[in-house]
Design goal:
By secondary structure, the chain is α/β, with parallel strands linked by helices. The protein has 2 domains: 9-26 and 269-398, Alpha-Beta Complex (Aspartate Aminotransferase, domain 1), CATH 3.90.1150; 30-266, Aspartate Aminotransferase, domain 2 (3-Layer(aba) Sandwich), CATH 3.40.640.10. 38% of the residues lie in helices and 13% in strands. The chain has helices spanning 30-40, 49-62, 73-84, 101-108, 127-133, 153-163, 214-223, 232-238, 256-266, 269-287, 322-331, 347-351, 361-367, 381-398; strands spanning 66-70, 91-94, 112-115, 138-144, 166-170, 178-179, 182-183, 190-194, 207-211, 293-295, 302-303, 309-313, 370-373. The structure holds pyridoxal-5'-phosphate.
Length: 400
């Protein structure tokens, strides 16, 4: 409360921070650099041994039987959706509160995304809303562990079982999360991860699909390699030139350079998760003194991976809109963000009438109120206190 009377930076006052704090940032150390350099000097820059090494380590971390790497999280989602084998006109139910790639992967495969509304307090897809949207054309559910909190998997897997649906879990926010005591990655039919620099570990660009189904793992391996049934190194090992293309696939391979970086990053995952949880806990405490901000609810029997720390503004306690508060915090040097514009609001989706605006009231109301606070393992205690100070400063100006 020290700065209660301080003039806001947006009104010409001194900002809390002169160097802006981003909302997310990668952590790279000397071991990462050495791991990359070692691969640069080796025989294999791509299709080499580091890929399998990374996949094996990733499968162990997530408790899945198989892990298949991809060139991005989006390519991983595309692979997962392709593995479902949608027939024209079939549908998959998904959430509007996500990055658009979650729904786009269905369009790549000729399937129609059908949006089901979220629970207002967690912003996770509501299993009851899923049930309302199931038709004879529904083949799959694409659910998102939004912010790093696992969805209600027990209920969702039950619904899927009852209706014969495949569950794709978009866990791009949730590496290291647990549901019912088990790590995210081995629970759904197919689980997709991203290694974009803002995510839990990074390979620059990169992604992974985990599954316990051997047939699906083989499909995924072919899909990322042009639909060809062997890779370059396998042929070298066998001393053979022969290969066959059996499906239509893509070049969605992760390189050995990226896999070496991923392996090195994965070793630090536990420490980073602990730090993310520590920062989230600090924000939880700070919010007890800031009634105009409400953290998302966290359900029991799970371990949150805190990719994001999202607050909802209590608009009736505020004299300014979300966008004014956003701008005021940015002016203080705090890299707040908004996750996400509901997918059905994007012009591409609007023009094609996937869901009329107004048809997903909880997602739409939430969108007007959400803000993501900076959260990444490399944040110092001072960075954290700057966020709390800026929240007090800005909200004391705009609270009723
Ligand atoms: C990051 C992200 C993706 C896409 O991953 P890329 O690696 O950027 O392609 C998909 N879904 C969600 C929920 C994400 O956060």
């Amino acid at each position: 409360m020290l700065t209660r009377t301080a003039k806001l930076a947006i009104k010409g006052g001194t900002p809390v921070r002169s160097v802006p704090l981003p909302y997310a940032r990668q952590s790279i150390d000397d071991e990462d650099v050495s791991a990359l350099v070692e691969v640069l000097r080796s025989d294999w820059l791509t299709t080499g041994p580091k890929i399998e090494e990374f996949e094996t380590a990733f499968a162990a971390t997530t408790g899945a039987t198989y892990a298949v790497s991809f060139s991005s999280g989006t390519a991983a989602l595309h692979g997962a959706a392709a593995a479902v084998g949608f027939r024209p006109g079939e549908e998959a139910i998904t959430t509007p509160i996500t990055f658009c790639a979650t729904a786009n992967c269905l369009l790549y495969c000729g399937a129609r995304p059908v949006f089901a509304d979220v629970e207002f307090d967690t912003l996770l897809i509501n299993p009851k809303e899923i049930e309302h949207k199931i038709t004879s054309q529904t083949r799959a559910l694409v659910v998102v562990d939004y912010a790093g909190q696992p969805v209600a998997l027990r209920e969702i897997l039950e619904i899927a079982e009852k209706h014969g649906l495949t569950v794709i879990e978009d866990a791009c926010h949730a590496l290291g999360a647990k549901a019912h005591g088990r790590p995210v990655g081995g629970l759904s039919t197919l689980t997709a991860f991203s290694f974009h620099p803002v995510k839990h570990i990074t390979t620059g660009e990169g992604g992974m699909v985990t599954t316990n189904d051997r047939g699906l793992a083989e499909k995924l391996r072919r899909f990322r390699n042009h639909g060809i049934n062997s890779d370059h190194r396998q042929r070298e090992t066998r001393g053979s030139w022969f290969y066959e293309m059996v499906d239509l696939g893509y070049n969605y391979r992760l390189t050995d350079l990226q896999s070496a970086l991923g392996l090195s990053q994965l070793r630090r995952l536990d420490g980073w998760l602990a730090r993310r949880r520590e920062i989230a806990h600090r924000y939880d405490l700070a919010l007890q003194d800031l009634p105009a901000l409400r953290p998302l609810a966290v359900r029991s029997d799970l371990e949150h991976a805190y990719h994001l720390y999202v607050v909802q503004l209590e608009n009736n306690q505020l004299t300014a809109s979300r966008s004014e508060i956003f701008s005021a915090l940015r002016a203080e040097g705090i890299g707040v963000n908004v996750h996400y514009i509901p997918v059905h609001y994007h012009p591409f989706y609007r023009e094609r009438n996937f869901a009329p605006v107004g048809s997903l009231p909880r997602s739409e109301a939430a969108y007007e109120r959400i803000l993501s606070l900076p959260l990444f393992p490399g944040m110092s205690d001072k960075d954290m206190e700057d966020v709390v100070e800026a929240l007090h400063k800005v909200l004391s100006e705009f609270s009723r």
